[in-house]
Model the fold of this input.
Amino acid sequence: MKEYRTISKIAGPLIFVEKTEPVGYSELVNIVLSDGTIKRGQVLDTSDEIVVVQVFETTTGIGKDSGVRFAGETIKMPVSKNMLGRILSGSGKPKDGGPEIVPEKRLDIIGAAINPYARALPEDFIQTGISTIDGTNTIVRGQKLPIFSGSGLPHNQIALQIARQSKVPGSTEEFAVVFAAMGITKEEENVFMQDFERTGALERAVVFLNLADDPAVERIITPRLALTTAEYLAFELDMHVLVILTDMTNYCEALRQIGAAREEVPGRRGYPGYMYTDLACIYERAGIIKGKKGSVTQISILTMPGDDITHPIPDLSGYITEGQIVVNRELHRKGIYPPINVLPSLSRLMNLGIGEGHTREDHKKVSDQLYAAYAEGNDLRGLVAIVGKDALSERDRMFLEFADLFEDRFVRQGADEDRSIEGTLDLSWDLLAHLPEEQLVRIDRDLIHKYHPNHRRKAEE
Amino acid sequence: MEIKKGKATKRKKGILKRISGPVVTAVNMDAHMYDVVKVGDEELMGEVIKIDGDDTIIQVYEDTSGIKPGEPVENTGLSLAVELGPGLLTSIYDGIQRPLETLVEKMGDFIERGVTAPCLNREKKWEFKPMVKKGDTVHPGTIIGEVQETNIVHRIMVPPNTPGGEIREIKSGMFTVEETVCVLKDATEITMMQRWPVRLPRPVTAKLNPDIPLITGQRILDGLFPIAKGGTAAIPGPFGSGKTVTQQALAKWSDAEIVIYIGCGERGNEMTEVLTEFPELEDPKTGKPLMERTVLIANTSNMPVAAREASVYTGITIAEYFRDMGYDVSLLADSTSRWAEAMREISSRLEEMPGEEGYPAYLAARLSEFYERAGRVETLNGTNGSVTVIGAVSPPGGDFSEPVTQNTLRIVKVFWALDSKLSQRRHFPAINWLNSYSLYIDVLSTWYDEHVSTEWNEIRTWAMEILQKEDELLEIVQLVGSDALPEEEQVTIEVARMIREIFLQQNAFDPVDTYCSMTKQYDMLKAIRGFADLAYAAQKAGVPPSQIMTVKSKNELPQIKFIKDYEPELDRIMKDLDEEFNRLRTV
Done:
């Protein structure tokens, strides 16, 4: 392989190489330092005169005397069934002291788009055991649903609880977990690893770790490696895979860093204009393919800078993913775990996975009614702050109380509390029973007669 | 009008000089703007978007990984065009009209590059029934025959760029789309398939006034903010406000004969939902699958960005083609923001001077060119057809002041303002009745007089007034509480609540409520008006509002939505209402 010593410029994570033979776009690059260390990179721009290479590690030690080798192919990832139980670095090298992965296959990490026609409709209800998700923001197999959180909130615990408890009722298959950490701290890593070990989840997990002190640019490929692995496990080995990506905010920061180094015209808040497409190429790698047994379900975590949901990162993510679970600081302050605010949360594929044949016939209507009643009660809190509780009508007071009750009993649950979907729905009816029956306008009478505690009691008598 | 003929002139091959994502530069090429080129050894499809000295800048519709400088670039000499003919309906295409179904057969579940497939099936034979005879003179656009494509009759027309003339020979029977069905005196051969460049609007004789509403079966749309056939509308909405559900309801229920749905930069799973649902859905008018009158264009967010840019043009050109047959076509573009972002991405790769928020300076021009292709027209063959364009915009952070939303609002006539606050309360469709508008109300009022009721326009205005009044009153309630309001206004608040919860809220997932006929809409609004009249009268007669609120039969009104043959039940409720109010006033 030819080695060039024609580096003309080094700027941040980028190196510029001159006078090369034709080099392919997005080819893998090895940079050989004078002491023999090899660093990896990827071609970002190629022309007769100059080739721009993005280096995935720090550029420390790279100089004009460093050698550059072009691999002649795009970045490939060695994959194998034996990856389960392994801990790898953010660029896919073993980090657990174990042997190198013996590849059964080498796959391009820039996954091709699934042909929309080849996709199967996701409709298998996943029971996470968390009421605010199962009851009001149901996840289905093949969905991509991020957790929008803020710094200092227990999003990691929630993600772990989901990973631990997720199952498809009636199916014995367990989820394989592909976990990709981007720029998380050592402490956060410990939380995840200890939990994986404690519950034995590690055996059916592949872990990619890029920690806070690892090179930022490496984060660009970490999620792609993880998703390539997930696709291999799902579509070639027929497994149901749950991918957890954390923290996408760090990924986007790395993207911005490269954009700035390339002196690109920045978009909103300095993030590159192609961030939407770039994020889409990550998030869209979830789903089910017709005729294949496996599935890829994606839960990515992102911390909203300043809790601002309109920040470009959550904003663009929300346009690509199928909804979002929003973790709320106010609920957290009230001591409620999991502090999921159902009002801005949404699961776009919920209606595919609920109702008769999936969960229970009353699920949709009950969920709508909970939303409506909680939203109304929540609004009244603002009013109470101005006029006081006494000025409220009888009806309003009931809704106000409902909001408190909802948070205390429906939202709040233990970190190890695994509620069945029937349990969640029955609990919902118990809460709704605190409102007058004629106020339950979202539910048809038939369902009320069948499930409302008052009627059930009568029926039992 | 002159456009390039089907025969390509052989041009010199160029050489690739630079590759930077979806934008590549070639040298030594003899190219014209918007020529379609084949890039590299794998012959990836691309389009010339800039010529600078010896450099030709090309946007490539497929992934460019691994392409090297020095590889050849071939110019086809044609502009990006779509194939139009029998076989379009029920098809699912990507942004550059490659049939996705065929692609699965050819290259598996993932979209690989460098694979081409004919847009229209070349083998399938269609039964062509001539509508003209030998010796007739035909003109551009003349319908020369018919093909029963699905339950829709596909009318075969003389291509608009063919001069026409006397017919020397016309055939009848089974033909493929490439076989000649008609020969003119000057030896021009006409097939059932024609090609049309996507960036060029198809010609029409005249644009007509949009004075017929597009009935959608959605109460808030038909009732309060109607759109005309051939009109333009924008649905802006922050994410999660039910935009997609609203658009799909429109695709399912609007009374357009042909539906073109462009999933531009949208989610893969959501496209799948459309792809799975449409073939299963029954067309309420024919009982046949809805897919039989639909063309889907799916370019998901992770498919190449240049193809996303093209998808919108591909869609509207197909829409215009069906319009030219005399059909009413509705085109749904979801989402034009993703389209604008594709423009922005390519523009920034071109290192163009950015306009507002990094969007190219020509953003407004491109948007208005696109929406201007909508309209109700007299076609070249004298029939009337229309293209209604409904574009979704996804303003970042729900901020309507951003350039795509603002430039769109300057063009479109109807604005359905989705509101995430409403969707959080599960008020669907989450269209805000105070911020939305329709500029077609005056043009359409005659139609409503003739087809619904002469009272319709008055009752619509009444409902809008109540809703407006409610908004003002609620501000006061926020400050002083509802008990402090004058009694009459307490009644107004109750009436407004009924309009919102009974009339405006509609359940897209309920088999009956998902579609509401104009007559039912009128009856429902009239019923609420009926309650309002009784309530105001009772209040004036001294009945306290707290008593009015306890009227039982008003709580039965919402159930009307879910009943198919609602008339007897509605009559009964109205009678009960009358009696209850009578009792109240006599107590």
Observations:
- The radius of gyration of chain B is 27 Å.
- The domain at 2-79 of chain B is CATH 2.40.30.20 (Elongation Factor Tu (Ef-tu); domain 3).
- Residues 1-9 of chain B have pLDDT under 50 and may be disordered.
- Chain B is about 35% helix and 25% strand.
